[in-house]
Design a protein that fits this description.
The complex is a heterodimer of chains A (about 200) and B (about 130). With about 200 residues, chain A is mostly helical. Helices cover about 80% and strands about 0% of the residues of chain A. Chain B has about 130 residues and is of the alpha+beta class. The chains are: A mainly alpha (about 200), B alpha+beta (about 130).
């Protein structure tokens, strides 16, 4: 195309190239911000409340119910936050959000299936570690396209999950609170301050 | 976007139709080119404005990494954009480290929109000729 002798067509190629450059620059720069920081803080706060409520429940079934409600609440908060953040940016700029959600989802689906299996086996003790581990895997893969702080948060979740799987069962609520509460709040603040929201 | 580039490629390959198009396309293309905003047409400056259009603010260091350029080059181009009133520069300290942050002004956003319209007009003009 570059060898075309026609200057008009060259001008057009040039225009196309410029548009492509603008879009790519927007997308690459925007990857910095696809993960909502304040949304993470809000999710963390709900998780701290949930870990407190879960700890005072009398039966494993009620304990599980608390965390089940927390998953729904946190998912809602997270989706609203991602949506809000994508809305605040230009419309030409949605690719990073799609990438994030698509690479985030598989490990979560795997975690949901394992939860069902362990629930049917009445093996509740393995749930907290498995949740932290699978969520960490989701964040690491979702964060592949993002700034380094995002996969770093995922690695922290994986570490906590591993600890939870080997630690005494009594630690589980505290570890869940530290992971879904503490890590979300700390990294959420960090992302919000450094990467705009 | 892919459709646009494939039709552009098809046109460029089809030499005869490109020749016949030349007359009808040239005036529109020339008009757009004449009104082209030179301030943001330059690559680095276009990159700065694009990155700022997608983010509320971007630091000097992030821009440098993103556009793969040097301190000197980036600051010269950022200064040009500042002089044109397209970007706003904010210097502060984070701890002891100086931090320079840029954001797009309303004029800058309008300039980018105009530029995008120009580019689209150029493509439309050439494509219109092929029908």
């Amino acid at each position: 195309m570059a060898v075309s002798p026609n200057p008009v067509v060259n001008l057009q190629d040039h225009a196309l190239d410029n548009l492509r450059y603008i879009r790519e620059t927007m997308e690459r720069s925007g990857q910095f911000t696809a993960v909502p920081g304040w949304g993470g803080v809000a999710m963390g706060v709900t998780a701290v409340a949930a870990s407190y409520l879960a700890a005072i429940q009398q039966t494993p079934r009620l304990w599980l119910d608390v965390w089940f409600v927390e998953v729904l609440v946190a998912a809602l908060v997270g989706l609203v936050a991602v949506w809000q953040k994508s809305k605040s940016l230009s419309e030409r700029h949605l690719a990073p959000f799609r990438k994030f959600l698509l690479s985030f989802a598989p490990a979560l689906v795997a975690g949901a299936v394992l939860t069902l299996v362990l629930y049917r086996a009445a093996d509740y003790a393995l749930l907290p570690g498995m949740w932290l581990l699978m969520y960490g895997a989701a964040v690491v893969s979702g964060g592949t396209f993002s700034v380094r702080v995002v996969p770093a948060m995922g690695v922290c979740f994986i570490v906590l999950g591993t600890v939870a799987l080997f630690a005494p069962a009594g630690w589980s609520n505290a570890l869940l609170g530290a992971g879904f509460g503490g890590l979300h709040i700390v990294f959420g603040f960090w992302i919000a301050r450094k990467f705009g929201g | 976007m892919p459709r646009t580039s494939s039709s552009a490629a098809a046109m460029a390959l089809d030499g005869s139709s490109a020749q016949s198009k030349k007359l009808s396309v040239a005036p529109a293309a020339k008009e757009s080119a004449a009104a082209l905003d030179r301030v943001i047409h330059e690559r680095i400056r276009l990159g700065i404005v694009s990155a700022l259009a997608a983010n509320e603010h971007v630091t000097f260091n992030d821009l440098k990494k993103l556009l793969n350029t040097t301190d000197g080059n980036l600051s010269v181009h950022a200064r040009k954009l500042e002089e044109a009133g397209y970007v706003q520069c904010n210097k502060s300290f984070e701890g002891r480290m100086p931090k320079t942050e840029y954001r797009l002004t309303e004029d800058g956003r309008k300039a980018l929109t105009r530029y995008l319209d120009h580019m689209e007009a150029l493509i439309q003009a050439a494509r219109g000729g092929s029908l």
